[in-house]
Amino acid sequence: MNQSRIKPIVKTNHPLRFALIGLGVLAVIIGILGIVRIGSFFNRIQTTTKGTPTPTPVVEKTEYTFLLLGYGGGRHEGTYLTDSIMVLNFDTKTNKALLISLPRDLWVQVPMKSEESFSTKINAVYQMSLFPNQYPNIDPTYQDEENPSKLLAYVVKDVTGLTVDAYVSIDFEGFTQAINTLGGITVNVERSFVDYEYPIEEKMNDLCERDEEFVQIEPIINKTMTEEDQEKLFAEKPELKEFVTDIKEHPVKAFPCRYEELRFEKGLVEMDGETALKFARSRHALGDGGDFNRAKRQQQVIDSAKDKVLSIGFIPKIIPLLNDLEDHIATDLPLSDIQKLLKESLEAGSYTTQSFVLSDTYVADSYSPVGGYILVPKNTAGSWKDIREAIQFTRLGITPTPTPKPNPSLTPKITQKVKTP
After folding, report:
1. Are strands 193-199 and 329-331 parallel, antiparallel or unpaired?
2. What is the DSSP string of 298-345?
3. In the list 118, 151, 311, 318, which could disulfide-bond 129, CB 3.0-4.6 Å?
């Protein structure tokens, strides 16, 4: 582990599972930074890239793109995998904002030192920056000692075509505390759903009273048992073979105590932090499962939180919110930009916000070389060109002209077959 890189993250960074609170929260955070406790709070959460001075702008900047990240935190496996990745683009001149959701299973290419090709799921890229010693062949241009989002920013630009100006991050605990400090939020659940497989964080290592069985198959899981001994064990105790299969293919059946049932009814629902987190994280819901539907729900949470943040009743809670987020949020937004964006934060309610979810319109199911589920560009060229164009059209308010389909009546009919000699 690279301690010099992980230390500031452990102290102050924990990405925002659900894009924090989008334009509204960003506005409030920026506004607060410019008004109260700007020195103490900002110095704690800000990460600055060394040796890269901020250039003097020639033309006034009006367009900004923020990378909004979210990971679980804690000490479990995959602590720094960014399950939620959103891109917030807004223009201070036109008062328009676009919130883009990127699926965590997106299969992306990472820049390497040599010409060799290396791809991974996009949710692993941020973690790769935190532990560069484990990935020594990554192009050092995108490995920044103080800014761990640089590599991900490169990948996000490749996918969306947008240049990232800064990132904001928060962990599950910080998100939950922030919603509770706001006094909860009201979310319009568009359709009822039930998720029977929602993971219980603190029980993910629980053996669910199957300790004796697990002891017997543990050598198989750890690949220390010979095939001969394995076949003998399964012949004597076939139920253990089923147990091993369930662990690999049906973990809910193998360890049911690790999961809980979530149920949300259609309509307006008052949610505290824990409930909002579950609503936004659920991805195995019947009728509303998968990453695409989850991304839409996450944006719903953002809109609801934004409305609460911008409400008059929130003002007395600014200081408590800062106290809650201080150890759970991180950003590399330059202090020089704070004052400019402070003014915009006061006008956040006047922004027109659009949403863009990378759904199955643009990506298709596939499998990685090792058999893992991934999402790849739907076009035959395997490029992000269609997605980048769609994002630009959305930003500019342009409705793309559909590609005309061939008219069967105009297609010449084959009247005879000609055999090539």
Report:
1. unpaired
2. HHHHHHHHHHHHTSGGGGGGHHHHHHHHTTTEEE---HHHHHHHHHHH
3. 151
Spatial separation of the C-alpha atoms in residues 395 and 386, rounded to whole Å = 14
Q: Are residues 239 and 178 in the same domain?
A: no
Q: Domain limits at 36?
A: 3-188+273-396
285 within a domain of the structure (yes/no): yes
User: Same domain for 245 and 150?
Assistant: no
Domain count, the chain: 2
On whether both 150 and 183 belong to a single domain, the answer is: yes
**DSSP single-letter state for residue 352:** E
Pair (233, 142) in one structural domain: no
- Burial status of residue 381 (CB atoms within 10 A of its CB: 0-12, 13-18, 19 or more): exposed
Residue position matching structure tokens 């939180």: 305
CA-to-CA distance for 386 and 375, rounded, in angstroms?
15
Give the residues across from 96 on adjacent strands: 91, 352
Same domain? For 184 and 211 the reply is no
pTM equals: 0.68
User: Is 225 a domain residue?
Assistant: yes
| Residue 201 in domain | no
